[in-house]
Amino acid sequence: MSKYELGALTEPLLSWYEKNKRSMPWREDPTPYHVWISEIMLQQTRIEAVMGYYARFLDRLPDIASLAGVSDDELMKLWEGLGYYNRARNLKKAASQVMERHGGELPADYEKLKELAGVGNYTAGAIASIAYGVPAPAVDGNVLRVVMRFLNCADDISKMSVRREVERSIQAVVPAERPGDFNQALMELGEVVCIPGGAPLCEKCPLKKLCQGRAAGAQMKLPVKPKPRERRIEKRTVLLLEQAGEVCVRKRPDTGLLAGMWEFPSLAGHCGKAQIRKFLEEQGAEAESVERLPDAKHVFSHVEWRMRGYRILLSGDRPQDVVSGALFVKWDQLQREYALPVAFHAFLQV
After folding, report:
1. How would you label 305-322 residue by residue, b for 16+ Cβ within 10 Å and e otherwise?
2. Could you report the per-residue pLDDT of 103-148, keeping only the tens digit for each?
3. Active-site residues: which are they?
4. Is the four-CA dihedral 42, 43, 46, 52 of positive or negative sign?
5. Distance CA 49, CA 136 (A)
6. Distance CA 195, CA 208 (A)
């Protein structure tokens, strides 16, 4: 038996969910493919932000075969702005695995789902329970928060041993006839009532009379997890090199941060106009004008870019080879065809 006893929450939780569940397109049509795409998009991303992307993604890639065959550039363009772009790359890789190993259909098996690229315990449990009715646990951050507060438990949720124990606890109580509803109800409760980053809405909670954390007045102290490590600060100078009505972009390396995405060229540190002109001269280029743009900032999980931008009009009527491997493209072509990370979107206002 698991150390976490959760049997008492099942009935009030499901009753609450029946009356309060939000309408979402993947809930209205919970095919395995739809559940999979929605769950990957929702990782570390707000539901409101996902809605439009989900509709556009399925309109262009309605099934696993089309996802497996899409070009990397088009896939990145469809994902542009959602962030955590490795999710999209794993989706395509997993789609190819499904085509090769499972005849184009996601397997209705928790363990086989976990063999797919980018599919861990949580995503496999969500697909298995919601789309196939398999009584499997689906434990994400919302579920961990609900469980730790419900039990008044100070175990560190960053530890894999704790997550595994919670999974075993949920496996023991997930109702065989409604596994998908049960998992979604736990997630929903954590999203809208037992919320992160603020006081939980205990008076609206269906578990308030059973919640040990609330009874002890400890709900704001739970769950316990280590403090996030400080972000590394990187200063960058972003160059909008324009010539003959086109702007310069280059593709980032295939590995590392924002792998395979397009970007405006940049230099390390914060450069002044004199440094910019010297850089251009070293590349054999000449600028008609160098205009300072408003500064911009973008925060990744472990690094923060503080960007100084310049709009640079190059002399001549033909694009110059200022940056190795770069292209000059029309502004409207850039926005239609090239996936530009959100980090650079502030400069698109130019």
Report:
1. bebbbbbbebeeeebbeb
2. 999 999 999 999 999 999 999 999 999 999 999 999 999 999 999 9
3. 39
4. negative
5. 27
6. 14
